[in-house]
């Protein structure tokens, strides 16, 4: 693997880079959380992918390990020898610069290595990485630290994908298996009040990451944008509101949809968010705790960009740009459900205090579609080497989502974080918040 | 499941129908053999399907059980209650008359029920079927016996499919896992002599099943056909011969191929039989015991109808019709490898006695493509009810193969047996034998 | 074009081969008839193909001319020089042995050469062929004559395709243009009596062409087949009868269909024969004279093999084999509509004399699907050279149709004639006749 | 057609709206230019479409006429009666709000109405529109004027499409027909100097249309954007430069491409711009005057967004945003080839005066890809009624191109004009200009 290239992207505060002890602890903690997430799954569950866009849980376990092997050990550890040459090929996702990749839609065919073998692989690489962190010279450690941090953030992204991909798999099974039991109170007692609008003044704002801590290259550089005066809804759109859209014929009115969205409606047969089913007793939706009645007060989830855009048009509003979203998010405090809560479902949005208006749940619950196509910030520079493939090569035909979801770790997401998916994707925990011109 | 229809097809000798003890024993033995075949597989191996045409081993285990539940217990046992309502849907293959079916290309998504649950299902149905066999009134037993026999033959067909489908799955895996260890002698020492032709006179022959024992409906009725004088090769085409075809540009000469075959060559990129790889050391092929050098003396295997037809044209010969094949098979004795040998690979064809000419290996080693499109025999009547879907509805765009393979049970195959696959199929143990006009 | 190979297939009586005068006359007459057929069409109509399986009329005009240029002039005329090198590529249909071919689904993109230029091409080649026929030495003429006869029969096949392809094109146009005016009496006054069965004894029959005159290689050799006793309907199935099948839910009952047929019904949305439309006033069908009410007494037309097979099953009957059909056709006299009548639609089947039972309309009106897959006759030898590609390479996944249609020339069809199409094809003038075991 | 909705979009200066005489003259002139463009084509040429994304010239002629019939006459003329009811369906492109549309990929099947009938249709509608313009009351005329202006701009868009679509059609034809003769000097004598960079200061700029005259809704509202300091190449990338990219392995280096672009390279087999062919004598390209050697000094043309983006990365630069482009274009004067020149090919870029640096050819020659995804401007409002479908519903998965091409009318394009195509489109006259951070 002579082609392995040193990664040198990201912006990491020097404190983290120097602090081997803190890094090792964080490594252990995040890697363990991944194992917690697959604990409810059988080896069979972990082997299969629901569709070409998803991956088997076992593959996620192996690929996130491959990332550390390739970009930390192979790149920085002079004693490095491959754990298994084949794994370098099987578990490379899309890094052309470090070799060929096993066909993505066929990842679900890899019944070998077994789950046990992949867990052995994880343990072995964990041991080596931890030994490397502890034993590396100050110089090497400094250089490797930023890559390790990327690897841990990468791991957290795959934690979320393990959840979204297993949800898609269980949905394809008529048995509708539950990933876990949900002991939380059956359904919300309160109700969600009508939307209230938070206005923001026009002006020249700064957007993008700055300061201490980790961020991805695509959040940089911090740069100026002019924003006209606008207003943002104080909370995401709820299931109850989305049902009004459905009942008003939202899925049958071409005038509400983008041209490609209208084609998707017909081709895919959409008539509700993903995972919804109309029963005699009303709408139900599939959660990681199984089927249950749709809670009207929860943020609507598993809608595509097309559906979000159509809903906004129907509501006489629009989606926010990512600059508007980020600019407004600064200072918002109330968070929705996050991965740490291990409920993996958006939380009910019940009004408690109608007196004080604030932007609620900018972080957590559901990724919020923005109207911004995913592209490079002004002054953006693609990192050198393989890590340049991490984000930059996907800047085409995707839309930015912001804020994280109930499957995102709170230690992973932040106001400047840019997630991105194609306009028809629905299997992520994606919802929306309205904006309008002021 | 009120739509379940009594099956009343097949031709079964009365002795078998009356003999509950013999039937129970046979039931136990064949059902156990299926379990033996999956013993080397992990739960993960059993969950996945390599392609839409194949099925997961777990599905084969469940479907063959569903067959007994649906057509024996539900149809004949007054005490019947479903083991699990969902299974009736999940494990119905293609019987429209007994309800809807879970989408075939998605069988590999069913990580639940687990392999253990499916094995429980098998045990439970086995208990019930055996109890039914022992406890049924003479009258009911007589009526059910023919269905049980169909179910056992059906089970044996799926035993072969378990092997062919797992071979396809392991081939898709770059690790090239071995299903089993093969301790047999490395490679044949002897060599195969040139083809010798066995001539058969013209005349009016009788074709199709008659007499005692089980047969499928598509082998009936026995009927007359006129055959012109012809000759049949004394043995199947070998790997060594097929390599000559390859080296003579067989895959590059359009004049050797049927029009659809030539299109398949281009579309699929064929340049050798399935499972072959050209290495620096020569041709290797993938077996259920892993990769190994191609043995020149073995019958060539995993070729499509198109390749068989092209080879025959190249060799200045043709494929036999199924009438010619069946007519000639009568009296041939030397058998090739069969499932019982558990080697699951064709046996080397070494000449021992060049003096006596006879038709060798008509049964076993490889299914032999015939030039006959699969269709109804004159006077054929589709059985009433669901069993009418077993064979009759596939009489279109398939070719007949004869003789069984190294993955076919010797107690399952016979001279009149008609297997059928589409002209491009290669993942069965399929080979060919030449014919020519005399 | 050094690869051009002399054609030496077909069976032609020596009288035809020697008789240059008769041949020239026949050449002029058949080539002129082709021009008559395109006379109602505009240059635009002639340029376009309705679907990949069809060709533009202009392409038919050019390709049938290319056939004479390539296989007669280039092969036999020492003075030959290409009319236009590009045409040799553009208008080669599928003869791999005489060079590459322009992509079939893109034939409709060839707006150049223009229709006028193609007509010039026809005239130029006609002049040369006629000069060749007149001027050739006895020896050369004898050798070329059989190819010219094949070319003329080939021309007649394309006459029929011009009609079926233009019908498909006009059907795709919401304006539903009429190819011609039909002045014939509006609708039949009489009615068709119920089916009567003509029984045929069992016995050893001879099938295939013999005697004087032209035939295709696939009609040879004449050979023996054993036929069990059977009965054939005295006439094709009518529109009136087919409507009963529709109204009885024929298109909604999976038990009536072959597995692939049932898939086709769902995929294509079939609910009636091609070119039918249900209006407030009942069923109408599109003819080359435009839309008109379905005539209940006409043979049903534009049904696939799948629909024919399903109808037969519904009717408690089956389709005949091609041997049965051919054996019965011998001696039948009443013909249906043929190309010469220039009405291009099946003729009404009104009972005139119920006393005498005979096989009516074996020739003409509609091609009749048989249950026989298209394959080589016993003893068949593929002709040497390019003409070997004419028929032999299509012997896979097609069914034989017999008897010719209202778009077939009476001088082209005969009892031994084997037409073939895939089981889902509907745009030919194809219908069916029932058979049953006696 | 009761659903026809009044169009009330666009921004038109009141002078144009009031000036019936000027409008009539402009109408005549633009409509006549369209006829000039199809003059070299035969009826066959006009009937066919090269691919689903293109349309037949005849369809363009009819659709642009349908636009006036539907949005001017039907909406504003009290005496309106349809010319032909069917045309309202056949020639509606994508306006869901005014009824169903004939399937786009099948437009090439409409051999009827004939070209002559479509030309009659044009004449009839022209007469009616001109009569309407002259005879309408001041009040009605004022309301209709903006729609007529949209219709004329729409007509000019289709003039360009007639040229790009016929070029694609002729390219599909191995005869490589020439649309016209090009008498211009064979090849440029001069050479293009190296790129020079024009720097622009940072600051708050105003982007979007303002002032008198026509613009599309998507150019509004004029709004502020902040631009960081940047530099723009003084001219488009030339063929000579692009050949260096090719020869440096540009099409074989995955690191230069967006992920979707790299997939497109493989899927489509790209190895040069569209219409290029490598011959023994070097690169040739297909023009509307036939094949000719690639002129190194011309702007490269017929490259996709993916190729433009890859080239820019290879050159160590990037594509400009549309704001950068528009901001810089203000004041640039030298134009490239435009439709009026009737050469329909970019003009050679020879350096005349190296002393003065300026932005050359911002308008004309080739549409320049920008890195901006096509989306709504801040404050954009979708027009009411059918015209809302003109631009807004396509704001997804497209990139903005700026500046017009050699097939764009100079009276149609302007600095604020936003064209948009998907990232893989190559059949437009599309090229690129480099940008970089300053």
Task: Set down the secondary structure blueprint.
The structure is a homotetramer of 438-residue chains.
Chain A: H1 14-18, H2 20-38, H3 43-47, H4 57-76, H5 85-90, H6 115-135, H7 138-171, E1 197-200, E2 203-207, E3 223-227, E4 230-233, H8 239-247, H9 259-268, E5 276-279, E6 282-287, E7 290-293, H10 305-314, H11 322-329, E8 367-373, H12 388-391, E9 399-402, E10 419-421, E11 430-431, E12 435-437
Parallel strand pairs in A: 8-11
Antiparallel strand pairs in A: 1-4, 2-3, 4-12, 5-6, 6-7, 8-9, 9-10
Could you describe the 3D structure shown?
The structure is a homotetramer of 438-residue chains. Chain A has 438 residues and is α+β, with helices and mostly antiparallel strands. The first copy, chain A, has a 4-stranded mixed sheet. In chain A, strands 1-4-12 form a 3-stranded antiparallel sheet, covered by helices on one side. In chain A, strands 5-6-7 form a 3-stranded antiparallel sheet, with no helix packed on it. In chain A, a hairpin with a 2-residue loop joins strand 5 (276-279) and strand 6 (282-287). Chain A is built from 12 helices and 12 strands. Chains A and D meet through strand 3, helix 9 and strand 8 of A and strand 3, helix 9 and strand 8 of D.
